[in-house]
Amino acid sequence: MNEPQADDSLPNEQHHEGGFRPMSELINAHELGIDTTRGGPHHGEFIEQVRGLMDRARLACPTDELALETIGILEKLNDKLDAAIVDEWSTPTWTRIDLPARGNVTLPPFTIDHADPDGVQARITFRTFHLGGNNAAHGGQVATGFDDLLGMAAAIHAGAVTRTASLTVDYRSITPLNTELTVRSWAERQEGRKVFVRATLHDGDRLCAEAHGLFIVLRPGQP
User: Fold this and answer.
1) pLDDT tens per residue across all 223 residues of the chain
2) DSSP 143
3) 184: which strand partners?
4) 159 burial level (CB within 10 Å; 0-12, 13-18, 19+)
5) Could you write out the DSSP letters of every residue in 184-218?
6) Which of 19, 120, 122, 223 has the fewest CB atoms within 10 Å around its CB?
7) Which residues contact 194 (CB under 8 A, 6 or more apart)?
């Protein structure tokens, strides 16, 4: 995998980019080698167990007794996790490129196979938690996956931090759950600060969805 990612340094007044880490540092960090130990050796399994809980909660219809028991367990667990809360720059999701979707539980898990200025290719799986209906992925979850991978393609192409200005998704066929799918995203062109991007989502040879969007390169200090 050759995905540019973040190192451990924080933005400072000289290179602050709207609260984001400068893209040049992300690329340099990858070239120099990234420390993937943040969160410890069990972080991947921790995230997987959280994803498993989300999958079960999506379809659960507990009895009153089980609901009350589970609520008590989750309250205690949340109290324990309060002690581990850090600011967004210190979370493992900036450096754990060894984990699906960098260990970010808000994203459908994906693995990057290739990433350079010409585009990004990844394998993505929409799990039970991402159910829309009739065993198909929710369209909003498909858009979430596209947004992250289109943003990655835009940022690597521009060599700068970008934000989504617009995103359009065309759903061509059913996107199945619990199936490894292929996403390809790339920048079509750049006009000043505007980066125009496209992406496709395939189940084998079948096109599930495609997207196009506009991402804007941020000025220094722009949120």
Assistant:
1) 444 433 333 333 444 445 555 544 554 555 556 778 899 999 999 999 999 999 999 999 999 999 999 999 999 999 999 999 998 778 898 788 899 999 999 999 999 999 999 999 999 999 999 999 999 999 999 999 999 999 999 999 998 889 999 999 999 999 999 999 999 999 999 999 999 999 999 999 999 999 999 999 988 767 6
2) H
3) 121, 200
4) middle
5) EEEEEEEETTEEEEEEEEEETTEEEEEEEEEEEEP
6) 223
7) 165, 214, 215, 216, 217
